[in-house]
Amino acid sequence: MANVQKGLEGVLAAETKVSSIIDSQLTYAGYDIDDLANNAEFEEIIFLLWHYRLPNAEELKTLKEKLLSYMELNPRVYSHFKEYATDNVHPMTALRTSVSYIAHFDPKAEAEDDTETLERGIRIQAKIASLVTAFARVREGKDPVKPNKDLNYAGNFLYMLRGELPTDIEVEAFNKALVLHADHEFNASTFTARCAVSSLSDMYSGIVAAVGSLKGPLHGGANERVMSMLAEVKSEDEVDEYIDNKIKNKEKIMGFGHRVYKDGDPRAKFLKEMSRKITNETGQSQLFDISVKIADKMKKEKGLIANVDFFSATVYHSLNIEHDLFTPIFAVSRTSGWIAHILEQYEDNRIMRPRAHYVGEVNRTYVPIEER
User: Fold this and answer.
1) Of 226, 241, 247, 245, nearest in space to 291 by CA
2) Considering 258, 265, 317, 341, which one is annotated as catalytic?
3) Catalytic status, residue 309
4) Most exposed of 177, 187, 276, 362 (fewest Cβ within 10 Å)?
5) How confident is the model at residue 68 (pLDDT cuts 50, 70, 90)?
6) Iron-sulfur among the record's keywords (predicted)?
7) Quick check: pTM over 0.85?
């Protein structure tokens, strides 16, 4: 009997310096996620993941300037959104299409030298924020908003999405969410990106493939499902009955447990605290209270601990972000990790080509169609 590892669980597929999960602790290039979540800007995380070190002041300034300069999209991309930007098109579907589309306007999309590859990564990281925000505005009949030179990456995303300057606590919350979602070792979408470029395909192809993988509810789509659940629970008093019914009917409850964390997701505590702060500031503290009661109930009844998706849902909701944009926001952050892994795959490449254990019928003989 062949030893098949379903879901590739426990299989070591490659070496990486980008991030690690050891004894339920997440690090980026050796830096503890607790340290980074408390101190780092998202732009610093981008540099760290791509270079395995934190930037100095001049390097950070240069990266920020380049990201800002690349954020605007070709006018034809905005027109492109108008062709299909409706409530019937999920933003992840639009993102998958638009990432592929912007490659047509990159004259150096196929350049292979290291400098151009890195510069292409900066362009993609800059533009993916604009793709998500522009789509969101176009489908509402609004004009896209150009980036503000006085804002950082997190602040610009909120500004381009809503057309108004975000508050300090909103920027803090969103920056922290971006930092916490930036990379997570060989998750499904990251592995998909590495598989795609292992054939020496281009970076845009790798990102498109990763977006497609992230779209699934078992990966990036979980926080959107969390918010759908919270919308069904009107008060703390309804939590026990609601969760009991879910468990009784064997329905999946999103936002709990994680395959690689047995002692709890180390990222969750930061978003739980941000959820408390921002729901309180926006007058939606009941959402946080319901969330905490659900989390306590799930830990008691099922032994499952809330993961990063659970509290990120209320953070984004309190930032007045449409629920179907939660997963595209995940993609905006995780693009930094995807690009890091793509760069790493290029550096030490071998095409991904696993084997399968065949379990179908054997020794069959072709029969002419008139005899079937």
Assistant:
1) 226
2) 258
3) yes
4) 362
5) very high
6) no
7) yes
